[in-house]
Amino acid sequence: MIEKKNQGVRLRRLRRSDTIRRLATETDLQASRLVAPIFVRYGEKVVEPIAAMPGVNRYSVDQLGGYVNRLWEAGIRTVLLFGIPESKDELGTQAYSNVGLVPKAITEIKRRLPSMAVAADVCLCEYTSHGHCGVLTGGEVDNDKTLPLLAKAAVEYASAGAEIVAPSAMMDRQVAAIRSALDDSNLSETLVMGYSAKFASSFYGPFREAAGSTPSFGDRRSYQMNGANSREAMREIEEDVSEGADMIMVKPALAYLDVIARARAKFEMPIAAYSVSGEYSMIKAASLNGWLDERRAAMEVLTSIRRAGADIIITYFAEQAANWLGEAT
Predict the structure, then answer these.
(1) How many CB atoms within 10 Å of residue 99?
(2) Distance in angstroms (rounded) separating the CA atoms of residues 158 and 119
(3) Which domains does the chain have, with CATH numbers?
(4) 315 has which bridge partners?
(5) Which residues pair with 83 in a beta bridge?
(6) Which of 149, 123, 132 is nearest to 222 (CA)?
(7) pLDDT for the residue numbered 5
(8) Is the pLDDT of residue 47 over 80?
(9) Pick the catalytic residue: 45, 251, 266, 284?
(10) What mean pLDDT, rounded, does the chain reach?
């Protein structure tokens, strides 16, 4: 028997039509909140499909213009660059070369589309012959020897025109080293987006194929976070904030929505979430097999990330999602 005091409550009234559902929507998802990762590789006239990530390509610098213009037309206003060099060495020297791929890509994007905001990933893993994110000493990643190299890379990217540098190596004090180097180089306006809570994850597999960054030995669990730890994630974020980060990030996104929500409740600053390669590829693979609707699944995942509290969503669905959002308006 329904109690009399509740007889007037009919929550389904708020769902009765598309117009009413939109009117009552609590969580907004906008193209301007999406960031498109881009893999930049050596060579000329190259657009190279990535087998593990259907629909995602590696681009040579001269081929970036058309793709970035498409992103802009779809409503995407920020890109995140990853470089894939022709040669690698123990110290990852191409990561911080002023004639490296990422500075060239930044210059090209800014030449063609000055209003596009450019973020540059700051790490050594794509550039080292061993595939780890820092310098090795005795077979171990040496935190403090890595810091000046990350800082040097960040300065090169900012000097080329990147508005945002995004250190992902998970070295202690990396944000402080980068912030100090930027300020000392008269680049104090450059934003630092810390990969503050970056967890060791199985969902990075397709990225490692795309970027050629699989470690040649061991794994990254000694510096990336334990996926079981949420309290530690808050400590990592606090450290980045205290060191001068302007934005913080949780990565991956889908398996760590609780961490995003916890960070949102605790920190009054922009929060990014990286919906990583494995999240993208599992939706793509399932949709290609006819097991789910790609558009609905992708938008559901992106909305869940936004609902958890992320202001910025880095996603390989950026262009598609922006076009879908445009169709819905």
Answers:
(1) 8
(2) 9
(3) 30-249 (3.20.20.70)
(4) 275
(5) 40
(6) 132
(7) 66
(8) yes
(9) 251
(10) 95
Task: Tell me the H-state helices in the chain.
Answer: 18-23, 64-74, 101-112, 143-160, 174-184, 205-211, 231-243, 257-266, 277-288, 294-308, 318-328
For 21-31, letters b (16+ CB in 10 Å) and e give eeeeeeeebeb
Q: Which pTM was predicted? A: 0.94
- CA of 206: how far to CAs of 13, 56, 268, in Å? 43, 11, 33
pLDDT per residue as tens digits for the range 273-325: 999 999 999 999 999 999 999 999 999 999 999 999 999 999 999 999 999 99
Helix locations, 59-99, DSSP H: 64-74
Residue of 152, 198, 266, 284 with catalytic role? 198
Active site residue 198: yes
What tokens were used for 142?
């040496």
Q: Please return the burial class of 221, using the count of CB atoms within 10 Å of its CB with bins 0-12, 13-18 and 19+.
A: exposed
